[in-house]
Each structure stands twice: as structure tokens, then as C-alpha cells.
Specification:
This protein has one domain (71-407): Na+/H+ antiporter like domain (Na+/H+ antiporter like fold). The chain is built from 16 helices and 2 strands. It has helices spanning 10-13, 21-26, 31-49, 53-60, 72-98, 104-129, 146-155, 162-186, 193-211, 217-234, 239-248, 263-287, 303-329, 341-350, 355-365, 372-418, and strands spanning 63-66, 68-71.
Length: 419
């Protein structure tokens, strides 16, 4: 069965937040997220290596008290990014309830692609870092940045088959779910079981309320600060609180009159512009800055940087296309509508854009000031840039060849009909 169109998105159900209309006019469509992130990453790199570099790093370490005192960078990565992961949780639940992941036949291919695209990069990284100081960073090259990757597809225009766009979006969402599991299980500090039990109790209570069709968004939002606090105190990374809150948010059935007014759709609609225009750019500004002094081309050959770069640039397309091919070959799935294997290779290359979640996992992996985090960032930025350029150019040539072939077929058909 070919993939069906995704369910209505909040942006199609109602007018988007007018506060962001001037920015949307400058950067229309899906390309917006990628453009903003690129700009902030460049600003961070220039700032971190310019005459005001000391100010950049000092600002990130300024202590800020919000109930507890933590550095600014900690608040951005633990509290602000919890909102980003809340939107991730909302998207994952919507896809499982009313989207591509709701139908096992349609979901099989992107889930397999996401799985292959996580396993192969992790294995490449682990092979290069086994027994070394950077061995714990194996989760870094597993991530696909949905904003960047869909932005590259959007820049290629209407030539991209809709099936390919749906496949990449669904793959990235399944990839996000995998990343959440990896963060929760493998990047968790020492557990405080008491705090974890309270957090679990809050999630269970909200799940019961959702099951009983309590549809007041304010009820769930009122519990959010408590869930974040106890998750932070438990030792599990605090951003998981956002994902869990998204999972329990009530959602009506697609086609129902109240679908667009359900708490999940309402909250996702309200938060997405803030995530696109503020949260992700702020995260990129705070995390993409890496001091390049002392860095040389040889730095990319260090095991951490090389493992990430090879994992993202080569491991992603090999894993995605390889496992997808096995499923199609076995007859358990079909290629997306309008796509062939050349399209799939291009999409696999574009999925090597890690960036946001990859930087986030790098910050969790290397907190000891051992000099490995800058190497990880270099690997992420290099591989993401190379994947965007190579994948975009490759897929553009494939689309051009497909268009020419289609035109030739039309010409041949026209001549044949005239005889």
C-alpha cells in the first residue's frame, strides 16, 4: 500500500500565530527551520571565535535562579529544550493515533529506515571509539534533524514526490522516538527512585484523565512544572518530561469536529512557531559555538569527530536504504509513491543532517571538560553541512533526470498518437 497523505496539521486547521507572519513572509514553507538554524549556527561560530569569544562562553555560564540556581546553558538545555521535546512528543503521538504510524503497513518502511539509520551510525562510531575516552558518545550520530532535512527537500521545490516528503517526515519522527529512548535509558545520571516515582505518578494521573476524556488543556499544563521538577530531580534527563507530557495529551479522532480543538492539536499549534523561531535558534546559538583555535583539518581524524562524521554522512544512508531494501525485497513494504531507489539514496543522504538532537546528545555525552565535546561539535557540523549539500545536489540531479525522462515519455506518447 502506498503512503496516504498525513492527517491535517494544526497550520491547516486554523490561522497560524500572526506574531510570526513577517518572518514567514521572509522564509516560506518548510525551509524556514533550516534557514534560521543555519543563521544561528553561523552566528555562534563567529561569536565563539571572534574578538568577543570570552563574552560568548561567559554568558553561557552566568548563574540564573529559577527556583534553583543553574548556569544559563543548563537552563537552555534542560528547561527550554523540554518544550522542544514536548512538541516532539505531541508529533509522535499524533502520528501513532492519526498519522502514518497508525497503519503498520505504511509505517513499516519509515520505521525500518529510522532503525537502520540509527544502528549503522552507532556501530560505525563504536567501532572507531571502542575502549577510548569517547566511547560513551555512540548515540550522537543516530539523530536526524527534521527541520533541516525537510528544509532541504523544500528548497528542491514541487519536483519532490509527496511520498518522499511523507517518508522523510515519518522517518524523522520515528528517529526522534528512538533518540528519546536512547537519552532516557543510556544518558541518565544516578537515579533518585523517590523523585522518579513521583514523576511516574504524575504521568499516570494525567494518562487516567486523558482516558476519561478530560479535554481542558489547563489541567495538563498545570502539572507540567511539577513533572519537569521531579524528572530533573530523578536523574533522568529533564527533557523527557516534555516527551511524556506530549504522550499523554488527549487527541480526538481525525475527522471528528473536535479534532482541531483537542488539547494536543491546540498545544502543538501554539508551540510550533515558538519552537521554530525561538527555542531551536536559541539552542543552536548556545550549543553550536565551538572554539576553533588549535583545531586543524587533522582534528576531523580524531576518533570522536571521525566517528560522528562517518556515522552521519555514510552510516545514515547505508542504514536507511539498506534496511528499507530488505523490507521491500521481502515483500513487507513498498517504496513511497513516485519514488525509486535513487530517490531513497538521496533521502538517506539528507537524513545525515543531525544537528539539533546530535548537538544535544553531545552535550549529554561529554560534560567533563575533557575536550571531547568540541570535537563532537566539529564532527556534527561538518557532517550535517556535507549531508545537506551532497544530499540536496544528488536528489536534485535525480529529480531532474526523472523530469526529463517523463518529458521524453510524453513526447514519445504524443508522436505515437499522431500516427
Amino acid at each position: 500500500m502506498s503512503p496516504a497523505p498525513p492527517p491535517p496539521s494544526p497550520g491547516n486547521l486554523r490561522r497560524t500565530n500572526p506574531a510570526f507572519d513577517p518572518l514567514r513572509a521572509l522564509f516560506p514553507g518548510e525551509a524556514v527551520g533550516g534557514v534560521v538554524l543555519i543563521a544561528c549556527a553561523i552566528v555562534a561560530l563567529v561569536w565563539a571565535n571572534g574578538p568577543w569569544s570570552a563574552t560568548y562562553f561567559a554568558l553561557l555560564q552566568v548563574p540564573l535562579r529559577i527556583g534553583m540556581t543553574l548556569p544559563v546553558l543548563h537552563w537552555i538545555n534542560d528547561l527550554v529544550m523540554a518544550v522542544f521535546f514536548l512538541v516532539v512528543g505531541l508529533e509522535i503521538k499524533r502520528e501513532f493515533v492519526a498519522g502514518e504510524l497508525n497503519d503498520p503497513r505504511r509505517a513499516a518502511l519509515p520505521i525500518a529506515g529510522a532503525l537502520g539509520g540509527m544502528i549503522v551510525p552507532a556501530l560505525i562510531y563504536a567501532a572507531l571509539n571502542h575502549g577510548g575516552a569517547g566511547a560513551h558518545g555512540w548515540g550522537i550520530p543516530m539523530a536526524t534533524d527534521i527541520a533541516f532535512s525537510l528544509g532541504v527537500l523544500a528548497l528542491l521545490g514541487d519536483r519532490v514526490p509527496r511520498g518522499i516528503t511523507v517518508f522523510l517526515a515519518t522517518l524523522a519522527i520515528a528517529d526522534d522516538l528512538g533518540a528519546v529512548c536512547v537519552i532516557a535509558i543510556f544518558y541518565t545520571a544516578q537515579l533518585n527512585l523517590g523523585a522518579l516515582a513521583v514523576a511516574a505518578g504524575i504521568v499516570l494521573l494525567l494518562a487516567v484523565l486523558a482516558q476519561r476524556k478530560v479535554m481542558r488543556l489547563s489541567v495538563y499544563l498545570a502539572a507540567a512544572p511539577f513533572l519537569w521538577f521531579f524528572m530533573h530531580a530523578s536523574g533522568v534527563h529533564a527533557t523527557i518530561a516534555g516527551v511524556l507530557l506530549g504522550f499523554v495529551m488527549p487527541l480526538g479522532k481525525a475527522g471528528d469536529p473536535d479534532f482541531s480543538d483537542s488539547p494536543l492539536e491546540t498545544l502543538e499549534h501554539a508551540l510550533k512557531p515558538w519552537v521554530t523561531w525561538l527555542i531551536m535558534p536559541l539552542f543552536a546559538l548556545a550549543n553550536a559555538g565551538v572554539a576553533l583555535s588549535g583545531m586543524t583539518f587533522a582534528s576531523l581524524t580524531e576518533p570522536v569527530a571521525l566517528g560522528i562524521a562517518l556515522g552521519l554522512f555514510f552510516g545514515k544512508p547505508v542504514g536507511i536504504v539498506g534496511l528499507s531494501w530488505l523490507l521491500v525485497r521481502a515483500g513487507w513494504a513498498k517504496l513511497p509513491r513516485g519514488a525509486d531507489w535513487a530517490h531513497m539514496v538521496g533521502v538517506g543522504m539528507i537524513a545525515g543532517i543531525g544537528f539539533t538532537v546530535a548537538l544535544f546528545v553531545a552535550s549529554l555525552s561529554f560534560r567533563g571538560g575533557d575536550g571531547l565535546e568540541p570535537l563532537a561539535k566539529i564532527g556534527i557540523l561538518t557532517a550535517s553541512t556535507a549531508s545537506a549539500l551532497a544530499g540536496g545536489l544528488f536528489l536534485s540531479r535525480v529529480l531532474g533526470r526523472t523530469a526529463r525522462r517523463g518529458g521524453a515519455e510524453l513526447d514519445t506518447g504524443g508522436r505515437g498518437s499522431g500516427h
